[in-house]
Design the sequence.
């Protein structure tokens, strides 16, 4: 009788023929109760955990390339030799097992300890690294520094009360009520003291002096640095219309914002979401899951058309309408009262809760005050260094020279911020690595995940393969005959392959 608790596939401790593992591919099986992936690159075979350590994505459905396996869900990259999470959004390594060859048979033996491979040669050993920001980029930088065995001091200053959290979850499962709060921290509280990361919360940095190499806090304390990472992210835009500061009008950036919306949603019946942005629409979906009546007001003709084009925009609108969201498009809000939102078109919408999703602004005040070069964000070079010596910038604030488009770009994506934090960390140790990852983001609407790779602000045409309505499609955004970006629904492998192709093209 089959044991339902055991993962699917062959028992690798009993051995499998080498020919059953595709070269450059993988085979899913098990060792005891654990799902294991055998990955073959030529004559070599490696055994690693089969579940991504980010959100348990099925690595057997990912892509193997250049000694790494990429997760189909949010593109985390793992080293098949060591299990190391080489590129965010995963940080925890995969388990690895010893593999033995007996003639043409591959047998999996004991578990091995995961040891990260060095990324390059550190040419400097700063004593003091200060990170301003406790979000995606700041956290990823601190974690990478310790992973590289950096022995100097790391101070992470954040004006948020909460330690680094999984921000994308704040508009998705946590807001919808399907994820508990203990899923949110990127690491448990004890990670910081145990890793000797001096995390100071509710600590605002007021000033940077690049000449003296110091930062000054709101309480006037002055702290020296040898290397500084600016990772101050972005803040939600607030409307200036009458009533926008009423207590039932919310924005969503922090855990505290999210808790406040959940509390308000418990008492509310009708919500008006202003703005059909990613955050606005994800909030709409999550509040539908909480059974609120949801209206979305936005000036656009179609939701997210500017990013995805008209076809996907129509699909997203229909998807939300099927889940009960009412759209008021090509319209804006003129005023908010305690019980209503007044529309420019003349109508009014009842609302006992209002959430603004009208975009964010990069938090560049510190960089401006410090006299760093600014161009709609903090200007950095290919190594994420700002115009001032020993100061790096990463995440939502950074505008960098993107090798894929040949333009300088600034994006607001979780994975980009984390990967830039990782690269900046290595470069603060003097490794001089260019940031060359292709931008990636994902967005979830109900059970529909959309993955997007590349960057296209304008395009000549969109080549659609598959059926958007059937949620089985890949869209290629082309300009001058070149594919600049790819969006897909349930075509994860193709999306990963497009990512690899874009990386190779720019290399
Ligand atoms: C609700 C929500 C859902 C999202 N969902 C997705 C998604 O699905 N996919 C995706 O790709 N992206 C998503 N994003 C965007 C993503 O979260 C951001 O791109 C990412 O967090 C940027 O990382 P960052 O480190 O640059 O900034 P942040 O994560 O915002 O971190 C900035 C940090 O700097 C601190 N700070 C700022 N100024 C100061 C100062 N003067 N002194 C001290 N500390 C300071 C802040 O408190 C914060 O800790 C989402 C964003 C939100 C808000
Ligand atoms: S589940 Fe693998 S990257 Fe998110």
Sequence:
């Amino acid at each position: 009788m089959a044991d339902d608790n055991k993962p699917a596939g062959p028992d690798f401790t009993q051995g499998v023929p080498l020919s059953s593992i595709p070269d450059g591919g993988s085979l899913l099986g098990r060792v005891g109760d654990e799902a294991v992936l055998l990955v073959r690159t030529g004559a070599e075979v490696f055994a690693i955990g089969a579940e991504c350590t980010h959100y348990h994505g099925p690595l057997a459905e990912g892509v193997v390339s250049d000694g790494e396996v990429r997760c189909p869900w949010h593109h985390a990259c793992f080293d098949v030799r060591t299990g190391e999470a080489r590129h965010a959004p995963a940080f925890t390594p995969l388990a690895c097992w010893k593999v033995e060859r007996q003639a043409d048979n591959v047998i999996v033996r004991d578990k091995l300890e995961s040891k990260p491979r060095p990324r390059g040669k550190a040419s400097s050993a700063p004593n003091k690294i200060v990170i301003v920001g406790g979000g995606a980029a700041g956290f990823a930088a601190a974690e990478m520094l310790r992973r590289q065995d950096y022995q100097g001091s790391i101070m992470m200053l954040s004006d948020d009360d909460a330690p680094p959290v999984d921000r994308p979850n704040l508009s998705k499962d946590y807001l919808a009520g399907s994820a508990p709060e203990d899923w949110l921290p990127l690491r448990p509280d004890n990670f910081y003291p145990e890793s000797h990361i001096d995390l100071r919360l509710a600590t605002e940095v007021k000033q940077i002096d690049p000449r003296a190499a110091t930062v000054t806090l709101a309480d006037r304390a002055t702290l020296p640095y040898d290397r500084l990472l600016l990772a101050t992210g972005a803040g939600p835009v607030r409307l200036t219309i009458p009533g926008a500061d009423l207590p039932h009008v919310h924005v969503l950036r922090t855990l505290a914002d999210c808790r406040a919306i959940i509390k308000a949603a418990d008492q509310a019946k009708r919500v008006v979401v202003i703005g059909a942005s990613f955050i606005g629409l994800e909030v709409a979906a999550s509040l539908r899951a909480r059974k609120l009546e949801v209206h979305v007001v936005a000036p656009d003709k179609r939701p997210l058309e500017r990013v995805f084009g008209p076809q996907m925009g129509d699909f997203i609108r229909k998807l939300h309408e099927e889940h009960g969201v009412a759209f008021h498009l090509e319209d804006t809000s003129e005023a908010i009262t305690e019980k209503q939102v007044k529309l420019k078109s003349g109508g009014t919408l009842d609302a006992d809760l209002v959430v603004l999703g009208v975009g964010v602004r990069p938090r560049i005040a510190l960089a401006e005050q410090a006299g760093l070069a600014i161009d709609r964000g903090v200007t950095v070079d290919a190594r994420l260094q700002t115009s001032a010596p020993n100061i790096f910038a990463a995440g939502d604030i950074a505008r960098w020279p993107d090798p894929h488009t040949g333009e300088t770009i600034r994006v607001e994506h979780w994975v980009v911020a984390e990967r830039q934090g990782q690269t900046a960390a290595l470069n603060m140790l003097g490794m001089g690595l260019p940031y060359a990852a292709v931008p990636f983001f994902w967005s979830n609407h109900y059970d529909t995940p959309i993955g997007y790779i590349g960057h296209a602000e304008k395009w000549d045409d969109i080549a659609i393969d598959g059926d958007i309505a059937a949620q089985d499609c890949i869209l290629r955004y082309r300009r001058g005959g070149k594919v600049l970006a790819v969006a897909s629904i349930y075509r994860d492998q193709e999306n990963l392959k497009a990512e690899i192709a874009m990386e190779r093209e720019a290399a």
Observations:
- The CA atoms of residues 89 and 415 lie 6 Å apart.
- The first strand starts at residue 16 and ends at 17.
